[in-house]
Amino acid sequence: MTTESNQTIAVIGAGAMGRGIVQLFAQSGHRVKFYDTSEAAVAAAHAFVTDMFDSKVDKGRVSREEADQALANLVPCTQLGDIADCDIVVEAVLEDLEVKRGLFAELETVVSPSAVIASNTSSLLIADIAARCKHPERVAGLHFFNPVPVMRVVEIISSVRTAAVTVDRLKACIDTTGHRAVLAQDQPGFLINHAGRGLYTEGLRILEERAASHDQVDLLMREAAGFRMGPFELLDLTGLDVSSKVMQSIYDQFQQEPRFRPSSIIPPRVAAGLFGRKTGEGWYQYPDGKKLEPAGAGETCPTLSDNCSVWIDPEAEDHAELSALSQKAGARLAQSPDDASLLLVQPWGIDVSQACADLDLDASRCVAVDPLPSLEMRRTLMLSPITRAQSRDDAAAILGADNAPYTIISDSPGFVVQRMLATIVNIGTNIAQRGIASVEDIDDAVRIGLGYPAGPLALGDSLGPHRVMQILEGMQRVTGDPRYRPSHWLRRRAQLGESLTTGEAARG
Ligand SMILES: NC(=O)c1ccc[n+]([C@@H]2O[C@H](COP(=O)([O-])OP(=O)(O)OC[C@H]3O[C@@H](n4cnc5c(N)ncnc54)[C@H](O)[C@@H]3O)[C@@H](O)[C@H]2O)c1
């Protein structure tokens, strides 16, 4: 009898994804039939998976016996009809709606009426793929990430017609692999590609505004926000040719939602072939395949000017630390902005120009210090368009007085880290608001699938929902851009003093 742990799974399409899916199911004890219109692709996938298991044996990760057992599960097929006895079909052919639609209609005539048919599509709607099926209730999405055995998260996508039992069967099957199955609705980008929009689009916005350079954004996201990679390093990894299409497609599918608006600085780069690692040049250069670190990404600390006096906004989050650093650097603390050669402020969601207008300060003497994440991490100093070189250097001398690293950027509502994190949280909370996935699934999917240090809702809780609101409202006030309007999920919980992830409010 077939159980959850010894199913017959058919994988259609034996390319980059198909072969990884074959490997994962074979090592999880399932019999795996795989078919491709190209016989060479079937043979290549067979050889690839065999090599993968041999190499696992060589590295001592599995025994020869375990590898042989997994390899015995592989059944290469030469015709579509060979998969007739399968329990589950996973389609991983090229990303073309007509090809997938035709294939799904044909699959229904080949497999048994009880078989589940799933697509690994990244960007097409499941309902569209199932449009010619007689039984769309047994069709769902099963979205793996590349490389499949390593990326331990799988999205199971329900279309408006998918039956609950179809989802249950796919989930039970994925549970046998050790990957985390997350459930998502049939919406553009599903869960993970939807949640990933914030990092890219906001990074590009910062660059467009010339608030910071691409390498400064990446540096701050790594060293201040704790991400493994910044948006531009990630774009170089995935390839701008691929990422630009995903950006445009998700924006269009969401009916030009401003939160997902792609940037006009992308098409000229795509046209010029600056795709990233694969073409040797993207945002960075890759001579011999290795990233060339741009010169001058860090800052060298200047010396404090004679008679420097500093006024620190009494509302500043890190008032005590900034006072101590000023004294350590040799500056005199001033009680009034009128008596100081340097004014330090720590605004939330707004830029230095707006802070100076709000507080009636002289912008030529003013420098802002990002209170996020804290002064323990790489610090961000932000200048107004008229901040004097002397005030900039004095601020740098103070913020570098304990040899901590810092980055100086131009005027930007929400610096870099504030606006990046607030955008990520806002999009994540909107996914929850729309019921595309549960709170737990959103956070796990983003952590595992995108490698963020925390999921967007947990991130929002650690910043504080009220603080995230403050940043977004500040950004919206300064820019007038509706992309920064807070989601209802976030606003309501911030107003009610509730967590984004736990308690009654997180459920609905
Ligand atoms: N590459 C990724 O990072 C990635 C990640 C997640 C999902 N996906 C999705 O997975 C699917 C496959 O992507 P890939 O990168 O493996 O593509 P690929 O080009 O490496 O492989 C596609 C394979 O499908 C075969 N094929 C084409 N038409 C077929 C048909 N009618 N029947 C059987 N085989 C057919 C081709 O011969 C080819 O071997 C796409 O839908 C893609 O969007 C890709």
TrEMBL record:
InterPro entries: 3-OHacyl-CoA_DH_NAD-bd (IPR006176), 3HC_DH_C (IPR006108), 6-PGluconate_DH-like_C_sf (IPR008927), 6PGD_dom2 (IPR013328), NAD(P)-bd_dom_sf (IPR036291). Residues 8-186 form the 3-hydroxyacyl-CoA dehydrogenase NAD binding domain. Keywords: NAD, Oxidoreductase. It holds the Pfam family 3HCDH_N. The keyword Oxidoreductase applies. The keyword Oxidoreductase applies. One of its GO terms (molecular function) is NAD+ binding. Residues 189-286, 414-498 form the 3-hydroxyacyl-CoA dehydrogenase C-terminal domain. One of its GO terms (biological process) is fatty acid metabolic process. PANTHER family: 3-HYDROXYACYL-COA DEHYDROGENASE FAMILY PROTEIN, 3-HYDROXYBUTYRYL-COA DEHYDROGENASE. This is 3-hydroxyacyl-CoA dehydrogenase. It comes from Pseudohalioglobus sediminis. The lineage of its organism: Bacteria, Pseudomonadati, Pseudomonadota, Gammaproteobacteria, Cellvibrionales.
